[in-house]
Amino acid sequence: METWRPSLIPTLLLIAAVLQGVTWAQDIPAQLDGLFTSPLYPVNGNVLVAEHGTAIYKKSFGFADAKRERPNTAASRFQLASVTKIFTSTAVLQLLDKGKLRLDNPFAKYFPEFPYPEITVRQLLSHTAGLPDFQIFEELVEADPSKTFTNADVIPALIRWKQPLAFKPGEAWSYSNPGYCLLALLVEKSSGLKFEDYVRQHIFAPAGMTESYFDTDLRSSPDANKAMEQQYPLLIDKDLQPVEKSKWQGFVGNGGLISTTGDLLRFDKALYSGALLKPHTLEEAFTPAKLTNGQSAQTDTLGALYGLGWFILDTESVGKIVWHGGGRPGVVTMFLRNISKLQTVVVLDNSFNRETYRIGFNAINILNRKPVSIRKKSLVRDYARALIETGSDAAFCKLVALRSDSERYFLDEEEMNDLALQLLYAGTSPNHNDLAVEVARLNIAFFPESFNVYDTYGEILAALGRKELAIAMYRKSIEMNPKNESGKRALEELLNQ
Fold first, then answer.
1. Distance, CA of 62 to CA of 74 (rounded, Å)
2. In the 8-state DSSP scheme, what is residue 3?
3. Catalytic residue among 7, 38, 76, 82
4. Among 136, 282, 364, 480, which lies 20 to 30 A Cα-Cα from 64?
5. Which pLDDT score, from 0 to 100, does residue 180 have?
């Protein structure tokens, strides 16, 4: 007779499950490494992936200065661009917690000269105010191209602009950088401190962020250009010039914060611990803003909603993800937080890698055992290099050849748009304006059904003084997309000149 004993099957299954979990956990760094070094869109910068506040993957890739072959390191600091907005939001919400301001007060209560008295602080935070973007400075730039603008110029520029809002405040969502410059002014008025000093004292210090500072700090140093070059990298490509100066670098609140992956993890932990904001205030920041029709504020990015300074994507399979990205010539940044599972991904890329968003979300997918989203390699960077090195004819031939290799390459309309605008505004070659026109024309030839390519071509033509042709392009764009509000405003400004 066989002696009875407990079945080994459940125990063996448990052991197998545990071993599988260990294998998976051990495999995650390798999968992340494969993601960040993929030949399809390799990272040139710093990345950090953390769970429960602990970094499980942290590496540096590529160069801070490709011409001198100076590598990125763990100490490399990066211009965060619009990731700065979550710090501005945090500062405003801290002042809410302290009773220094109210979100539903009109902004004009604090700044009576503000020309749109119906806009509230909440609407500025959620990009539902209907404010324009930096086109309000176009005439001022033409009048004084060498001027570096600051937050103090925003309200006067809006007064001078004299245009109606894109929509009644609260009716829709539209991204506005000047809106966050206004919020930085509000922080200053409500706290009695310079914006940068407020952030240092009330965010950096309690979070332990010792490696972060602002563009404005560098520009005030005795040797600002050298300091900027050494302290943070802004690199487009080995064959293109770094972009270290901009007429927009005087603004703070919308951008201008310089930091590291390590400091962003410290900020992340401080948010979780309650060191910066009360829990109910943080929850409100991560709740989609409501429009006047009762619907949530829907963005034009990945189908996400928008709260108070944060993009929001609530998924059943992965969890609730809140994030912000940033981009400017020479850098693309991504700060992702899966607040359901305490997962964090930071990607700081100083090669203007347009795949940074995809890379960030793929890292979240790897952490949650979900398939990664892979797409072919964009050919725009190779085309841009050829354009600079060999001229438009040879570059066009290369573009056609790469585009025919459809198994490995694809042509991205938005990247071509960005290339055209970078050549126009940040190009250093003597013929950069002609190259911008060339790229914009090609984009129309390849994507004739897109309203945006005509809009971009119109912007370029207007900047080059070709008014009548610019008007024709804007009209074509608006005909294809009657909701192109920025195109309508640009066209109206041209017609009124």
1. 12
2. P
3. 82
4. 364
5. 98
Q: Which is nearest to 253 in space by CA: 203, 186, 158?
A: 186
Q: How many whole angstroms separate alpha carbon 48 and alpha carbon 268?
A: 12
Which is it for strands 213-214 and 305-306: parallel, antiparallel or unpaired?
A: unpaired
* Cα separation, 42 vs 65, whole angstroms: 17
- Burial group, residue 112, by CB count within 10 angstroms (0-12, 13-18, 19+): exposed
Classify residue 496 by burial, with Cβ atoms within 10 Å: 0-12, 13-18, 19+.
exposed
In whole angstroms, what is the distance from residue 362 CA to residue 12 CA?
Answer: 33
Q: What is the DSSP letter of 373?
A: -
Q: How far apart are CA 353 and CA 276, in angstroms?
A: 31
Distance, in Å, from the CA atom of 312 to the CA atom of 306, rounded to the nearest integer, reads: 6
- pLDDT, tens only, 27-39: 899 999 999 998 7
The yes-or-no answer on residue 82 being catalytic is yes
- Distance CA(420)–CA(392), nearest Å, equals 13
d(CA 146, CA 267): 36
Render pLDDT for 341-354 as a digit per residue (tens, 0 to 9): 999 999 999 877 77
CB count, 10 Å around CB of 43? 24
Place of tokens 């809009």: 455
Two structure tokens written together for 312: 């929001």
What are the CB-based long-range contacts (under 8 Å, 24+) for 418-423? Answer: 418/352, 418/354, 419/380, 419/383, 419/384, 420/456, 420/457, 420/460, 421/456, 421/459, 421/460, 422/236, 422/329
Give the strand pairing for 213-214 and 257-259: antiparallel
Q: Which residues pair with 338 in a beta bridge?
A: 321, 343
β-pairing, 54-60 with 70-71?
unpaired
CB of 471 within 8 A of CB of 495? yes
CA distance 83 to 258: 10
Average pLDDT, the chain: 86
pTM of the predicted protein model: 0.75
- Burial (Cβ within 10 Å: 0-12, 13-18, ≥19) of residue 117: exposed
Which tokens hold the place of 303?
């189908």
**Helices of type H across 274-350:** 279-285
The strand ranges marked E within 31-124 are 45-51, 54-60, 63-65, 70-71, 78-79
